[in-house]
Amino acid sequence: MAPEIETTLPEDAAARKAVTPVICYPVETLPRPDLAAYRVVREGWALVERVTVAPRDAACFTVPAGHFFRVCSVEGPQVGDLNLFNERDLNEHFYSGKTRALNGTHVGLGDQLFSSFPWLRPMATITHDTLDWYGFDEYGGSVHDVIGTRCDPYTHFLLSGGQNYHHCCHSNLTRALAQHARLPLAEAERHVHDVLNVFMCTGFTRDTGQYFMKASPVRPGDFLEFFAEINLLGCLSACPGGDCSTVHSSNAASCFPLEVEVYKPTRQPDGWKPSEASGYDRTHGTSSERTWSTRGTTAFG
Fold first, then answer.
1. In the chain, where are the structural domains located?
2. Measured at the alpha carbon of residue 76, what is the angle toward residues 71 and 78, in degrees to the nearest 5?
3. What's the helix, strand, coil split of the chain in %, to 5?
């Protein structure tokens, strides 16, 4: 929140504030996916897995490189918190901050989800979005944000006067990852990261700059579809906030399951190959001759 102003305004305050902004990361040179080539191979594809995510819980799923997956609304308006990992190396995971810097506060058709340093490569491409019609509303809200981190028990404890709640998305993701990867709970928790808020409608208030949420426009039958650029391990939480119209981090909201569908196309898109890790040499301006590799796994990693 903006603090109370105590400093006397300088004479050129208006001029300083009137400076025209520039885009931090111009993306004219950013490689873009060929969506037409992706869409063609959906014809005749086969559903190979369907995973149901129970309300106020999470589940893991795997998607081979070159396959598609959908996050689907099936029974009622419900938002989901999505983590993505390199299936073969949990250290490489979705990087919401850099995805936001390259795409914007909310993602949609054609946007790519990037992985963490030192890999920084596309993990998945959004190939269909049934909520693309929503755009930005009069409050500045939109869907599928990469600005919220995820509801978590630590912030809830801080703001509730010391209450424990164990079904925040952070806890749901931690439990599911620990079970899937057969990791101790504490180790799994270290891998849980900032999410893509699927279907969630959010923005920033114009007067205080605070993160807000409002009722998601999602309805049964809606879905967000992705193409896997590398072998993926996904982990999806059905948020305890339901459609996030009122509260989260409690059992007060009406919640519904989500489904994940994984599809195998009949062939790979023309000219497509799995994304490669960043080619940066990782010397960081030093004189060291030692070279570092981000390619500890295969190109399909």
1. 48-264
2. 55
3. 15, 30, 55
Whole-number Å distance between alpha carbons of 277 and 285: 20
Q: Are 79 and 260 in contact (CB under 8 A)?
A: no
Residue 43: both structure tokens together = 């014809």
pLDDT digits (tens, 9 = 90+) for 53-81: 999 999 999 999 999 999 999 999 999 99
Hey, how many other C-beta atoms are within 10 angstroms of the C-beta on 143?
A: 27
* Rounded distance between C-alpha atoms, residue 2 and residue 10, angstroms: 18
- The DSSP result for 201-250, as a single string, is EEEE-TTT--EEEE-----TT-EEEEEESS-EEEEEEE-TTTT-SS--SS
Position 248: which residue type? H
Pick the closest to residue 262 from 281, 292, 236, 244 (CA basis).
Answer: 236
Strand runs (DSSP E) across the chain, as ranges?
A: 46-53, 58-63, 68-73, 80-86, 89-93, 112-114, 122-129, 142-145, 196-204, 211-214, 223-228, 232-238, 258-264
**114-169 pLDDT per residue, tens:** 999 999 999 999 999 999 999 999 999 999 999 999 999 999 999 999 999 999 99
DSSP bridge partners of 145: 106, 197
pTM of the model as a whole: 0.94
3-state secondary structure of 114: strand
